[in-house]
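Posting this for the archive.
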Amino acid sequence: SLEVSKVEESNLEALKKLIWKRHSTIFVDGAEKLKLVTEFSFDEKGELQTNVVDADTDVEQKRGLRGRAQKNAIEDKMDYVEKAGQLALAYTFMTKGQLMDFFAKASVTEENGNYIATAENVYVKGDVVTFVIDKENKKFISKQFKSFVGQDGISGEIIYADLSNGIHYGATSSLDMPAKKMKILAENKDYT
C-alpha cells in the first residue's frame, strides 16, 4: 500500500502540471441528451479546477410554463450530476492519506498478476470501492465504486492508461445514476 501511494503521489505531482479536457456524453433514459467538454487543471494550491468550455444538446427548449418546468427539471438533474461527479472525482484523485486509509480498511487479493483491493465505508457509509493495481509497476488499472448521493445508489468506473510521456491518467470513466435514469460516459484527452 505504501508503494502504491508513493507511485500515485509522484504521478499526481506530474499530472498537476498539465491541463486536459474531459469529453462527456450524458444519457437520460438511454438516449443521448448532452455532450460536454470540460477543461481540468490544478491551481497553485493543488486544488482541481474545472471549467465547462463547450456544451451541445439537441433537446428543444419548450416555451412558457412547460419551458420553466423543463428548465427546473434540468437544473435539478444537473445539481444531482454535480454531486455525483464530485464524489466520482474524490474516488479518482485520492490524497496519500486517503489512499493509506483506504488500504488500512481494504482486503487485498492477488489475481492474474494484479492486486485487487476492496474497502467499504471509504467516503460514504455503505460505499464499496475496488482498485485493480498492476503488481509490477504499482499503477492503477481501474477503480470501481458503488456509493450514494443521498439515499440513491450510484456506481462508476475509471480505466487508466499512460500518456506518451509516461504519466498515468484516468483515460475513460463511466458514472451510472439509476435513480435519475442517467449515465455519463467520459474520455480524458488533449493533455498539454
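The beta strands are 20-28, 31-42, 48-57, 107-111, 114-120, 128-134, 140-149, 152-162, 168-177, 182-189. The mean pLDDT is 87.
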